[in-house]
Design brief:
Length: 871
């Protein structure tokens, strides 16, 4: 018998031996094809295995002699410094012995490749398993202790001896509670995630490879068929020889079909294991099926829900719908639609145990509200939690009072995208953005609607855009857009609503307006948005019946054309000039002042306008707020930035206490606005009141769990030292520069310098260039030179980041100076600077204690303005 035939026989044996006896022959007949002579040999091996003196309990020499008809290695009494005690069993490629090291006296598991002299491929897989174990260092992964070869070149390695029970058996015998089962499952996920982080996919996750020791700790074993991942996540080795090595009941559909495997294949197996832990059975009943039928079932049929099986089996669970989501999302047939990673599963198990909304679940208002109530049940019953109770009561009132059309549920989040110019007439091309802005402006007064406005850079303006993909990027339910065509002196406009899920058309309205009468167009857009579009989206109420209306055709046309211009410096200046002309012609039209304020804010924050542009912005924004008091989001922006750029003692400025009272007033008017709660959280963060800021952040995502702007709340939780929650918020908009920058700071505070260096580029603010140079061990003179380039920003929070980076890079004097200026500009930093690990090197300096006192004084001033006791 040659080595290839032996490879085929042992592969078939490992598959067939796990099947019920009636299915074994059918499986072999199907797999052996033209070589039916393999069947009796495999069946003979199975018969031997079933006897009291198991075929697989014999030593490797006896196995080789019986199967190959030739002598094999001698029975092992010793291997290196290890004395063999007894055989433990056989893995996919080798025999595993219980052994003891003479000098240390500890018992270990020693694995020897049984046929290294016959199969180079098997030898390579054995060595690969050894290498895999060598790179993994996790408390829930069996550790590798030693490795070498015998005199004849046969490889062996020594690993931790785990005396325990398979995961499901342990839970059954100990009658584990649901919380205990999920705790073990999370430990398993953490071990698998550790492997994935090191580029290893297991590919054979099943309870028998997961042992739980008597102390309740878990060990993941048997990386015999694991694969390395290349940098883009695909397995390096996609070859197949003989029967596929896996356990079908736990294998992902792509493994059954022999396709590419990835981290998502392990996610699927984890979903099956979780299902079994919850219900006591597998998601598919395969007992009476042939291997071909079983493969068809796994690859084509949908599994039962855990709730339908678990309730019948008597499993205990507090919220079966969430458990169904956890299992079914992991076991989705399409790998791309499974949980994004094992880390996502870990987070969702944590969310479930804390009664928080799952990331895997598409949140409905009722779902997130129920989670909020359950999570805060005790607090709601206490008098001290009346604020939370009021938020819940108001949200419920709004929900119950809304009279949405019965055939169409209320749209929670909507994006308005640029329109398409189907006639390509350049004279009306500005309407691509103008029409979208007008619809956004009208919907901005709608209650209980989360609005994502289109981006002026034209990212979503392409004619071949994929609305479903765009909707998922923007995290919305519906997309509002349309197209227009100039025909002579008439303009035909089509408004459309598309449901993101399934890319379904939901609503359409077509109307004509004169090309030279933009004010008539505005009136039509406003009327059709209020009377047709808004009810279809589930909006039944607007905060005002008298929104601003233009009164001058030329002024309005200038306004529309200016709004369509980009933010490039040259076009931005052109836009400011056009808007100033428009405002002079129609001084009572609030939107033109709002557009002009935005341009000056951009010039001050991102351009060359500096504080002069910010001061101009403040004056203009105040005028806009006076003209349009119902535009609460714009008014909130005025309050926040006006307070931000008021220097201490400045006459006519706005104190933080005044801004806070302004926010309180706006929240009384619009408690349903996620953006208002978010802006309030920002104000409180500036004052250093991190607990209050965190509550406002949580309220914001309770109302709108997908608003990308809430990414900034990641700073609040980072300053509190809650790094996991910080990253949760940053994932709301993972591709933004802000999220990438703050993620770097979170990783630094966690001591994960390697994760920081994996960032593609360094942000161009806050001293990140210096920070990366320091982490890459550049010369000291280069760090000092880069430190000199770190200049104060008009935004004091940016200065806090700069101070932290300077301190981390050993630039103590510069760090203290920057931190002092941060507090002088009103960013209180207390109590964050007390515990922020970035400032550890500064805390022994006398100057730091002065800065700390200034930070406390900064916060005390705000507390006094609110009428609260000082610290």
């Amino acid at each position: 018998m040659n080595s290839a035939r032996w490879d085929r026989i042992q592969g078939l044996f490992h598959h067939a031996v796990e099947l019920p006896q009636p299915e074994q022959r059918t499986f072999l007949e199907s797999e052996c094809g033209d070589d039916q002579t393999l069947i009796p040999e495999v069946l003979s091996m199975i018969d031997e295995d079933a006897r009291g003196c198991s075929f697989l309990d014999r030593d490797v020499g006896q196995l080789a002699e019986q199967v190959l008809g030739a002598p094999g290695p001698l029975y092992f009494k010793r291997v290196g410094p290890y004395r063999i005690l007894r055989i433990l069993g056989e893995g996919g490629m080798g025999v595993v012995y219980l052994a003891e090291r003479d000098d240390l006296g500890n018992q270990v598991a020693l694995k020897i490749l049984r046929d290294a002299w016959l199969s180079p491929a098997r030898r390579e897989r054995f060595i690969t398993e050894q290498r895999t174990l060598a790179q993994l260092n996790h408390p829930s992964v069996a550790r590798l202790y030693d490795a070498n070869t015998l005199a004849d070149g046969t490889p062996w390695f020594v690993m931790e001896y785990v005396e325990g029970l398979p995961l499901t058996e342990y839970c059954r015998r100990h009658n584990c509670s649901l919380k205990e089962r999920l705790g073990l499952f999370r430990a398993l996920c953490e071990a698998v995630q550790h492997a994935h982080a090191h580029g290893v996919i297991h590919r054979d996750l099943k309870p028998s490879n997961i042992l739980v020791k008597g102390d309740g700790s878990l060990r993941l074993l048997d990386f015999g068929i694991a694969k390395q991942l290349d940098p883009i996540g695909k397995p390096v080795d996609q070859t197949r020889t003989g029967a596929r090595l896996m356990t079908p009941a736990y294998a992902a559909p792509e493994q059954i079909r022999g396709g590419h495997t990835s981290v998502h294949s392990d996610v699927y197996s984890l979903g099956v294991i979780l299902f079994e832990l919850l219900t006591g059975r597998l998601p598919f009943v395969l007992t009476d099926k042939t291997p071909a039928e079983a493969a068809t079932t796994i690859t084509t049929e949908e599994p039962a829900t855990a709730s339908s099986v678990g309730r019948h089996a008597g499993a205990r669970a507090a919220s079966w719908p969430d458990l169904d989501v956890l299992c079914l999302t992991a076991m989705h047939k399409d790998p791309k639609r499974r949980c994004a990673s094992v880390d996502a599963m870990i987070r969702d198990v944590g969310h479930y145990l804390k009664h928080e909304p799952l990331e895997a679940r598409r949140d409905s208002f009722a779902y997130t509200l129920a989670k909020f109530v359950r999570r805060n049940r005790q607090a709601i019953y206490l008098a001290g939690a009346m604020v939370a109770l009021i938020v819940v009561a108001v949200a419920l009132t709004l929900r119950l009072s809304r009279k949405s059309p019965p055939s169409r549920p209320r749209a929670k989040a909507v994006a308005v995208l640029p329109f398409l110019n189907t006639g390509n007439d350049p004279t009306v091309d500005f309407l691509r953005f103008a029409l979208a802005n007008e619809i956004s402006g009208t919907l901005g007064y709608a209650r209980s609607l989360s609005l994502r406005q289109s981006q002026a850079d034209g990212k979503y303006a392409a004619p071949d855009r994929d609305l479903e993909k765009t909707g998922r990027e923007l995290r919305v339910d519906d997309i509002v857009t349309g197209h227009f065509l100039k025909a002579g002196e008439q303009l035909q406009i089509t408004l459309e609503v598309t449901g993101v899920e399934g890319n379904r058309p939901l609503w359409q309205e077509v109307f004509d307006v004169p090309v030279r009468n933009m004010m008539a167009m505005q009136a039509q857009i406003a009327a059709k948005t209020r009377r047709g579009l808004a009810p279809m989206l589930g909006v039944s109420e607007f905060v005002t019946d008298s929104p601003p209306k233009p009164k001058n055709e030329e002024a309005y046309s200038l306004y529309l054309r200016a709004k369509a211009l980009s933010s490039d410096p040259e076009t931005a200046n052109q836009a400011i000039e056009m808007l100033n002309r428009s405002a002079a012609l129609d001084p009572d039209y609030a939107p033109v002042w709002g557009a002009l304020a935005s341009r000056y804010a951009e010039a001050g924050w991102f351009g060359n306008g500096g504080l002069e542009a910010i001061a101009r912005w403040r004056d203009i924004a105040n005028r806009m707020a006076a003209l349009d008091p119902d535009n609460v989001i714009a008014r909130a922006g005025v309050l926040y930035i006006a307070e931000q750029f008021t220097n201490p003692g400045e006459k006519g400025g706005l104190t933080r206490g005044e801004a806070y009272r302004g926010f309180e007033d706006l929240l009384r008017r619009r408690p349903d606005s996620a953006r208002l709660h978010f802006l309030m959280s920002w104000l409180l963060r500036d004052a250093g009141l991190l607990e209050e800021s965190a509550r406002e952040c949580d309220t914001s995502v309770l109302i709108d769990a997908q608003d990308a702007a809430a990414r900034s709340c990641g700073v609040t939780f980072m300053l509190r030292g809650d790094y996991r929650r910080a990253l949760d918020y940053l994932r709301l908009d993972p591709d933004s520069e802000v999220s990438k920058a703050v993620s770097i700071d979170v990783f630094l505070r966690e001591g994960k310098e390697k994760d920081v260096l994996q960032a593609q580029t360094a942000p161009q603010w806050g001293g990140y260039s210096m920070l990366f140079a320091f982490l890459r061990h550049r010369p000291e003179h280069e760090i000092v030179a880069l430190a000199r380039t770190v200049q104060p920003s008009p935004d004091p929070e940016v200065n806090y980041f700069s101070a932290a980076h300077l301190a981390y890079c050993g630039q103590t004097d510069a760090a203290l100076a920057m931190l002092k200026q941060t507090i002088q500009r009103g960013y209180c930093t207390y109590p964050a600077i007390e515990s922020d690990p970035m400032f550890t090197s500064l805390r022994g300096k006398p100057a730091f204690h002065e800065i700390r006192s200034a930070a406390m004084a900064c916060q005390n001033e705000f507390l006094a303005q609110r009428g609260q006791p000082r610290l």
